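Q: What does the assembled structure look like for these inputs?
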Amino acid sequence: MKDKIRQVFKELFKINPEDFREDLDMNSVAGWDSLNHLNLVISLEELFGISFTTEEVIQMTSVKAIIETLRGKNEREII
Amino acid sequence: MKSNTEKLKEEILLSSGRREIGIAVKKLKELLCADASFLTISFLNKALSNMAREDLSGFTYLKIAIICNATIEPFEMYLKAEAFKYDLLLDVHIVDHYRYAEEIMNKEGNLYCRECGFFIFMLIGEELNPDLYFRFAELSAGQKKENVIQTLSTISGFIEKVKSFSQSPVIVTNLAVPSLPLNGIVDCYRDDSQCCAVSDLNNKIYKITSIEKGIYYFDFDRVINMFGKDKYRDMKRWYLAKQPFSISFMPVLSGEFLRFILPIAGKNKKCLVLDLDNTLWGGIVGEDGPENIEIGETPKGRAYSHFQREILNLYNRGITLAINSKNNIEDVVKVLDGHPDMILKRRHFSAMKINWSDKADNIKSIAEELNIGTESMVFIDDSPEERELVRIKLPEVLVPYIPEDPAELVKTLKALPVFDSFIITEEDRERGRLYAEESKRIQVRRSFTDINDFYRVLEIKICIGEGDKFTIPRISQLTMKTNQFNLTTKRYSPEEISSLCSSKESLVFWLRSEDKYGSNGIVAVAIIKKGASVWAIDTFLMSCRVIGRTIEKAFLSYIISIAKNENVDQIRAEYIPTAKNQPAKDFLKDNGFLKIGEEDGRLTWAQKVKELNLPCPSWIEMVTV
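A:
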């Protein structure tokens, strides 16, 4: 799962895989603005074949939050 | 393990880094075909913005603006990606949705100073007129009527403003008819039907558009019906950021816009080259025999018959058909002339290459025979190997992916946005016949050693007239499409031709030709800018169909005779070189003009009218109307 997120951050925000950390957030990543946030959401939805709720999209403002949201979805939808 | 997509992306970065743009472009097209995810679309947009425009040979560059009352991003990325498939590089300006009205009104603003090739004017109905969509049932009869009138006048006001500040075409979308109206299932029975009100508004929008004026009607409601009215919106992103469309709708909407954009950019296709076995019918005629191929009333046969019907429809719209097949000609002729279920007959094909040669070489010789460029051709073949060969050898030919299941053929063909044009002229409807007549002329020409004898035998008649409302569409079409015998390659919309026709400072001539093998319709156009003593030839072009019959000489001699009558002192003309107009290069020199200037390859020619003695060739009979 993290590999895929890492790939998205590399492609959308040019974050090198070695610089990818869980504490990255909208404030610390250049280019992660509100418009690109939705592009990030589209990319993750396509890659994982899921759909986030409005609330989840609003909350997912850091890598940590993204991972937690995806884990929550895994438990509910995949297992 | 790296996925195929990642490998392709790395190879693209490598080859574009080395400026091997041809390879990068081919791999980008492969990537788009293999994976159309948002990340791929975003990758492609970045890769394109890193390439130098001049390195993208064969691409046409076009500036456009999208005016929308919602957040259109990231749609523009999908539009650019779709355009890229057809060798078109779009530079998209997006008007901020919360200030689109201001931008439209501001003549000096960003919207107009960029000199866009065209505008897309797309208003989301729910946002433009919430009353119509959400409160319609609450309005009084008078308010309902007023609502529709108000909305129409808002839209037409915007369009008039755009057209008053710019000559470029505007594509205007209509509004979505609600899929479930406010009155529910009885909506259509009611006088105050919401669906009828929106349809009525759409009809009124249609009426303010006009091809001649360069205001094109985009039937957005048709497009969402085709895609699915409950799937084209994404409500989550709408509530979050006013992004109206679902991601899966974006490539479809892009394709539908390309049906308009490609002819505006002169990138629409003219010729469809077809394989035969397992493309036009099921099975292999050389092995199975003409009587055993699948066409007609079998499950697969029905699919191929339907495919042939759609191809015939393109033929009727002016697309030239050709065959490119590895086969024995005797077998194919038995099918084309004798099989009762064949919808396409021999007469529908303007060229046939049925042999065992390389299919790319065959395509080149079809292009030569028909006197068209390979970049205006589409090649359809069920074999991935043949497709790949043509893509490598002739990258300018469009070679779409063809699914294995014949049931998908019609859908694949219909999804190609390359065959649309704004005008279907009488000449288009007859083009297949025209090419067939041309092959008779070529046979006759071979039998003559003296070319003048050949001209005489043809019994050429020409008719020249000035542009009027009947001929404006064809005149514009010729300026858009003629690449070879064209001195200046200036493109004019019907609207521009119309204003040139009515202006006292210009003359627009058309020329119709016929000979003993048939009529060619309007095949040549000249536009003259009149000065007091000097006339300038702004445009002089002739369709490649009639090159090599001295018709251009007759046309020029007519223009000179008119100039003499009006006591004009001098005629000037320019030759602006392009990749394709070599055939027109020596025309002015050969007919008595003197070179007076040369700049960046553009040659300026002039001559005193009294020095120009160019009779109409004796084998051409000329009349004027």
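DSSP finds 26 helices and 18 strands in chain B.
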